[in-house]
Amino acid sequence: MLDGIATSSLPAVRGKAGPVLRVTLVLEPATAGLLNVARLAMPDTDVRVHAGTLASFVANAAMLRQTDVLIAQLDPENPREFEEFERLARDNGSRMPVIAAVRDLTVAITRRVLRSDAVDVLSIPFTPDELHQAVETGRHRRSVAAAEGPVRAGRIVTFLGALGGMGTTAIATQAGIIWAESKSVCLIDLDVQFGNAALYLDLKPQLNVSDLIEAGDRLDAELLRSVAEVHASGLNVIACPADMVPLDALTPDLVNKLLDVATETFDIVMVDLPGAWLGWSLSALERSDAICLITGLSVPGMHQARRQLEVIDANGLGDRVRVILNRVIYTLFGKIDLAEPEAVLGRKINHAVANDYATVSAAIDQGRLLSAVKVKSRVERDLRNMVTELASQLELPVARG
Fold it and tell me: What is the CATH number of the domain that holds 79?
């Protein structure tokens, strides 16, 4: 019998130590099922159990963001699992100290785990006192990191077209300009073969994604800022390669590193993805706080959007999707009936963006905000509403323009 906590969130016991520490235990279901909620009570600590794998925890962006200290069950003999644990501890240690929980713990395994960036090792089964001690180690490590300086935790919003020609990049660039009015924003064009984000903003960058690919492990915040081209609005743009490169030029590890650095540097990281499903594009989607799927009312648009949604749902990311219906023609009374397209897609359409080809085309040609071309256009109002709602959902208030 394990002395510990049940597979539900425990209310924090308020003390005098300070703000509540959010602790997540990632345990195998069999281990989690043996925990006893009555045996745990820690001041200023809110403990939750995720009964599942480390990979499923990492894929849950909301839970990852809301964890201050992570205690994860680990099988050191599983190379893939241990590599994932090492990467998580290395990339998140300053913001989220990571502690290993291991069955049949030996001195050799303890040394091996502590050679990573883990802050402690907990033997399974563990007592409440042992768990408390591990949590306090994590709390202390966070206090030290906080004293050294704050770590950003930017949000990631990806833009994915149901198919080509849906206006995905136009929506991403205009939304980025709007968001940059109140936040530090970086738009990364990862459509490495057909990307147009810089072109849509009338930018001629000297550096681009290729320079980040070549940097590899040397990628850091300074390099990222040097590669970014700054639009007049304040929006930072990482352009796609100047020459068409193979889709496999990017890797999941590189994309994860890029997103780690970007979220430590900017409040909002917007990613324009290609329509193809690849290992690294899936990594970007798994890291996303919101996935904006852009489609239109055409038969091909609806058909491909439904297929994209099926793949997204199959990867457990459906709750992050925001369906955006582009180029909508409103009635004389400013209304639109979304019942039929929602029935086709099998889910709610979160935002509709008006069809205004002339205004959008002129804004793209000039690399400017829509309002610089046409004051109080319906399409800009729709995009501002979209950004405002996304910001609210991501706990980032945005003032309306």
Answer: 3.40.50.2300
| Per-residue model confidence as pLDDT tens digits over 62-74 | 787 788 899 999 9
Q: How far apart are CA 322 and CA 386, in angstroms?
A: 10
Residue 309 lies in a domain: yes
pLDDT tens for residues 298-336? 999 999 999 999 999 998 899 999 999 999 988 766 678
Domain range for 277 = 155-393
Number of domains in the chain: 2
Cβ-in-10-Å burial (0-12, 13-18, 19+) of 1 comes to: exposed
Q: How many CB atoms lie within 10 A of CB 208?
A: 22
Comparing C-alpha atoms, which of 146, 145, 230 is closest to residue 184? 230
Question: Do 286 and 239 reside in the same domain of the chain?
Answer: yes
119 and 50 in a single domain? The answer is: yes
| Residues 344/316, Cβ–Cβ less than 8 Å | no
Claim: this prediction has a pTM higher than 0.70: no
The answer to whether residue 167 is domain-embedded is yes
- Asked if 82 and 173 sit in the same domain, the reply is no
- Considering the domain architecture, whether residues 185 and 319 belong to the same structural domain is answered as yes
